[in-house]
Every structure is written in C-alpha cells, then in structure tokens.
Amino acid sequence: MRRLPIYFLLDVSESMIGENLYRLEEGLSHIVATLRTDPHALETAWISIIAFAGQVRRLLPLTELTSVVVPSLPAGGGTSLGRAMNYLMDEVDASVYRNTPERKGDWKPIAFLITDGKPTDDIAPALSRWQQHYASRVSLVAVSIGRNADLGVLSQFTDADKVLTLDDSSDGAFQRFIAWVTQSVQARSRSVGDVTKEEQLPDADVSILKKLNLDKPMERVDESNAYFVSKCQRSELPYISRYEPMHQSFDVGSAQLSATTYRLVGCYPVKNSYFEMSSEAPNFATVESDQIFGTPSCPHCGNRIGFAMCSCGNTFCVAGEGEQTCPWCQQRAYFGCFADGESVEISRARG
Description:
Residues 5-185 form the VWFA domain. By secondary structure, this protein is an alpha/beta fold.
C-alpha cells in the first residue's frame, strides 16, 4: 500500500508558550481524531510530528494513522528554522519510499510548518539544499501564527499561495484553522495520484487566514516580546516570563528621544526539557532592569516574587526577604528589596 506521508514541523520556542502551545497540542489531537473517520485518510495517511526551538526533536516517527498517539509538546529557546528544515529533509530521505524497479514509492509528502517567530539561526545552507533537492518532492505549507514570523523567509521555502498568516489568536479562530488543516489533509488523501489536484489546498477562511501577497510590502513587526527564563527555588523547574514592549517618545529641548519599557503579560511553567530544546549558542541579548515593569509569581510553587536576581546573573522565585538558595548555582545569600538600587542587565531569552 502506498503511503501519504504527512509531516507537522512545529515551532515550540518561548514565543509559542502558553495558549498557542496548548491549542496546537489540542489541535493535533482533533486532526488525528477527525482523519480516523475518513476512509481515504485511513487507507493512506501516515503522520510524523517534529518540534523545533533552538534544537530539533522528532516527537513521532512516521506512523500509520490508526496507531498515532499525539505527544505532549515541549518548549525551548530559539527558533532554529534552518536546523529544523535540515532535519525534515533528513527524515524524508530516511522514511519516505521512492520509486524503484521493484515497487512504487510513497505518494508525494505534505509538510505543515507552523511558526510564530523569526529564525535565530542561519537558514542559507538549508534553503539551498531544499530548493535544489526537495522543493519539488515535498509540498510545504507554511503558517505564521500572528505577524511576527518572517514571511519573506517562509516564501523562499514554498510558493507564496502556500504561505498563510493566522492573524486571529482567539479559541474560535484557532479551531477553524485546525479544521482547515484537517480538510487539507483529507483533500490530499483523496487526490493522490492526480497531479492536477495534489497541490491544491481548500479555500482558506479569509476572516482568519490570509495568504501572502507579494504585490504588497510585507509588514515588519519590531522585536516584540522579551522573554526571561527563571527557576523555581523549591522544585528547580524552569518557567518563562513574557514582557510586552511599550515604546515612548518625548521631547528634550529641540531633540526627540525614544525609550522602550517592558510590561509583564504572562508567566508560564515549563519542564526541564526546555533546556534540551534550547539553542546551545551563547546569548548576549539583555534588558536593563529599570526597563521592566511587573513581577510574576512563581507558576510552580506560588512564591509571590518570581523575579529575584542572583549574583550568578540568573533569576528565580522567593517568598520574601531573607536567606535564599539560588537553584541555578546553589549559592546562599540574603535577598531583599532595595528601591534605590542601580539598574542591572538581565539576560533575555531568544524567543
């Protein structure tokens, strides 16, 4: 039986943590459950799930639809799109059967790349490899969650009409997006072998999904959210704080100055697998502490202060003033609040 390989290449970087990651995990389960009711998909569909942040991990090898168990999605730091695309190409080489004199190979694979950020690695080698050897062998659909992804980069990997933006992050919009992905797989499973139809996608719901228009200038979103990795003092588990930028400008004499501050909008628990999924490259991006407004509580243990800074440069949670043990370096020291203290640089995560 000839298989239809379906790959989900999923961005699980810090910017996806929270509602987007939960919805994506639930959405995958819904896709699998719906496809199991479709006789065409049951006959041909095989699914693989690959997650990427700074590192890449195969969560599910190419598996027959009836045997798919949707895994939990990890989280990590960085958006190594180049590394992820190389991994996808290696998986296609290793898992997809090609035509031989003895047997017919698999149907043309389809891959759904879902991301919400800009690449933090060099994509050039992967892009060259893809364009030369894989662009004609794999149908790639690239979806940007929100407007932070680099659509110009995505359009280099696939045709412009297969680059879409999900600009509405509400629960209802995400459910309709998942329904569209499901319909795309169903349509593909019914059109295998028909070269005139296999590249066609169902009409997108234009109220939530917008196709890339190369005739219009691409909107650029400046480096939006700032992310910080902290640890729970009790469990030593990591969590991610997300801060949203606020840009201000003001006049000083004849000059106009601008400043950026960051406001707390969320704090999310993650597992230690976060570090395994994060980029190993050194991170030099920092934010001054006096630019940051709002202190999270710890999402693991509930300590009311989740942003105490140790002399080792890392942050963790404390219940209040007093002696504390840093879960990063195990150093014990007295921690207190000092309103007139100098601003310090805090390392921000890659997003």
